[in-house]
Amino acid sequence: MESNKENAINFYKTAYKGNPKKAVDRATNAGAEVLAPIRLVQTNGIETKQAFLKGPDGEIIELMQIISGDF
C-alpha cells in the first residue's frame, strides 16, 4: 500500500502535467476540498499559478506552476 507521500508524488506526476486547472479538477473529483482556488502570484521576479487543497486524510496540498522566474 502506498503512503500518502507516494500518493501525492504519483498524483503530481500523472495529473498535473503543467495544467493547474486539470489537477484541481482531478483532485476535487477524487474528494479533495479546495481551500484556495487557482490564483496568479507575482513576487520577487517570480510569477506562478498556485492553489491549495485539503486531501482526504487532512493533508494540505499546494499545486504550483512557475510561469516565469526562478526560485
What does this structure look like?
This protein has 71 residues and is of the alpha+beta class. It has one domain (4-68). It is 32% helix and 41% strand. It has two helices and three strands; from the N terminus they run H-H-E-E-E. It has a three-stranded antiparallel sheet with strand order 1-2-3. Helix 1 (4-16) packs across helix 2 (20-29). The longest helix has 13 residues, at 4-16. The mean pLDDT is 84.
Keywords:
71 residues, alpha+beta, 3-stranded antiparallel beta sheet, 41% strand, globular
Quick description:
32% of the residues lie in helices and 41% in strands.
What is the structural class?
alpha+beta
Could you give the order of the helices and strands? HHEEE
Shape assignment: globular
Distance between the termini: 34 Å
> Average pLDDT value?
84
* Main β sheet profile: 3 strands, antiparallel
Strand order of the largest sheet: 1-2-3
Strand content: 35-45%
Compute the CA-based radius of gyration.
Answer: 13 Å
What's the β-strand tally?
3
What's the topology here?
Elements: H1 4-16, H2 20-29, E1 33-43, E2 46-54, E3 60-68
Antiparallel strand pairs: 1-2, 2-3
